[in-house]
Amino acid sequence: MDIYGRVDEIRLDERQLCEDLGVSRTPIREALSVLEQEGFVRTIPRRGIVVVRKTKREIVEMITVWAAIESMAARIAATSASAEDIAGLTTLMDAFEEDPTGDLTEYSDANMAFHKAIIRLGDIELMSSLTDTLFIHMRAVRAVTMTQDNRAHRSVADHRAIIAALRARDPDGAERLVRDHTLGLAAHVERHGDFLDTGASPRIFKPSVLGEQ
To answer: Residue 45: which CATH number?
Structure first.
């Protein structure tokens, strides 16, 4: 769901969800109840169920928390992950070596899979459960910002450096690279994320000005 790439209010229709998913209303209502308890949706009288968007400040805080968790997971993974696990990270990036902008939706999905894989390699269940609650917003914001400021190309380069540190069994380097990479997203949102508060469309940078921001 494109939460931050559109400006209109996102409403969820129970009947439509039932038809789309091929289930009865009971599991849909149960799922929506859980989502509301976790702050992802809100029921508004006479308007229905709407998706909750976070403010710029809240998004920056989420990214900062994610950076702390993922960087620690990378530190652990540098000494405990198997060679096969690390090779799996390489496989995620191989298809985007030349031009990740060819299919930004596909790369955005691979990008989030990469970051979730690092957290999983930390092998601490609490890390995974904490980041699961942030995932829907992190994924949506990363998808929007991937179109800006040449971030897709720099993302691939950063991921390659992270993989190299993991292969070298360098916990300090892996932790630092992951932390700096994710905090770079926080800094980008600080500079260019006013649309999160104003409701305006997110800015899409033209190729001619990439890297100038």
So the answer is: 1.10.10.10
**Domain assignment of residue 125, yes or no:** yes
Q: Which residues, listed in sequence order, are joined to residue 191 by a DSSP beta bridge? A: none
Kind of pairing between the strands at 41-44 and 48-51: antiparallel
pTM of the full structure: 0.77
Could you tell me if residue 6 is inside a domain? no
Residues 6 or more apart in contact with residue 205 via CB below 8 angstroms: 147, 148, 149, 150, 213
**What is the per-residue pLDDT across 152-179, written as a single tens digit (0 to 9) for each?**
889 999 999 999 999 999 999 999 999 9
In a shared domain, residues 204 and 158: yes
Q: Read off the tokens for 88.
A: 């799996």
User: Is residue 44 helix, strand or coil?
Assistant: strand
Read off the pLDDT of residues 186-206 as tens digits, 9 standing for 90 and up.
999 998 888 788 765 555 443
Token code pair at residue 114: 């990469």
CB-CB contact of 5 with 140 (8 Å): yes
- Rounded CA-CA distance 212/83 in Å is 38
Q: Which residues neighbour 171 within 8 Å (Cβ) at sequence distance 6 or greater?
A: 74, 75, 76, 78, 79
